[in-house]
Amino acid sequence: MIDCLFCKIVRGEIPATKVAENEVCLAFRDIGPKAPVHVLVIPKSHYGSMDDVPTAEVIGAMGLMAQQVARQEGIAETGYRCVINTGADGGQTVGHVHLHVLGGRALGWPPG
Ligand code: AMP
To answer: What is the pLDDT of residues 74-110, one digit of tens each?
Structure first.
């Protein structure tokens, strides 16, 4: 997708602080962190939202990269939250599916 913000990050046209990468997914720090650790995991291919992801492989790859990020960031033991906001009511603001990995402090529940 030419104009997609996260596709531009995948192509290296917009800078991002990468924390993990493989053939399927990329993980980078959220520009507006909501917790001490806040990393976004995205598929390199463009899917508008979680609702558009066609295969278990892509969803599984995102989940496994979230585990990797949590271990790298030192929050696997203390715990973390994975969030995929989907659509307008889900609070999604960027139209390329992404998984938030949040941790480094106790997180409130339920979200607002
Ligand atoms: P969501 O509201 O679930 O769509 O989350 C979008 C997230 O993308 C927000 O947490 C933003 O802070 C983050 N974000 C927007 N632009 C960038 C960027 N250029 N680099 C890193 N994170 C970004």
So the answer is: 999 999 999 999 999 999 999 999 999 999 999 999 8
Residues 6+ apart with CB under 8 A from 68: 20, 27
The answer to whether position 20 is within a domain reads yes
What residues are in contact with ligand 1 under a 6 Å CB criterion? 5, 14, 16, 30-32, 40, 85, 91-94
Q: Which of 88, 101, 95 is nearest to 5 (CA)?
A: 95
Q: Which structural domain, as residue segments, surrounds residue 25? A: 5-103
Nearest to 50 by CA among 80, 26, 41, 81: 41
Residue 111 lies in a domain: no
pTM over 0.90, yes/no: yes
Q: Ligand 1, closest atom to CA 38?
A: 10
Could you say which DSSP state residue 54 is in?
-
Rounded to the nearest angstrom, the distance between the alpha carbon of 68 and the centre of ligand 1 is 20
Structurally, the chain folds into a number of domains equal to 1
Please say if 98 is a catalytic residue.
yes
